[in-house]
Design brief:
Length: 114
């Protein structure tokens, strides 16, 4: 694992409040939530961002989306609705250079941008 914070969480060096995990993906609670449910979905392989996806590693996005669906069910927001977001690059606010998705829900969000 590299020295990035998400790789260290995946490796167990930094504790996290994990709510779901499988062979390829880990889902844990965000430490600065913007909604009652705010989870981080990360692939266990290090990929910097969506910009670093290619034909060999793109399947990890499907794994992450399936994990998002499962995490929404576990969190009880699968019926009411939720949002899945990936920030790509500095202008979008990507603060950790490891592909990840934010799953947010538990409140009506309408069309607002998070």
């Amino acid at each position: 694992m590299s020295g990035c914070i998400f790789c260290r969480i995946i490796g167990g060096d930094i504790p996290s409040d994990t709510i779901y995990e499988n062979e390829t993906v880990k889902v844990f609670k965000d430490i600065s939530p913007v909604a009652p449910v705010h989870l981080i979905i990360v692939p266990k392989i290090h990929i910097d961002s969506i910009e670093s996806l290619n034909e060999q590693n793109a399947g990890v996005v499907a794994d992450c989306m399936l994990a998002a669906k499962k995490a929404a069910e576990i969190s009880g927001i699968d019926k009411s609705g939720y949002r899945v977001i990936s920030n790509v690059g500095e202008d979008a606010g990507q603060s950790v250079e490891h592909l990840h998705f934010h799953l947010v829900g538990g409140i009506p969000m309408g069309e607002r941008i998070l």
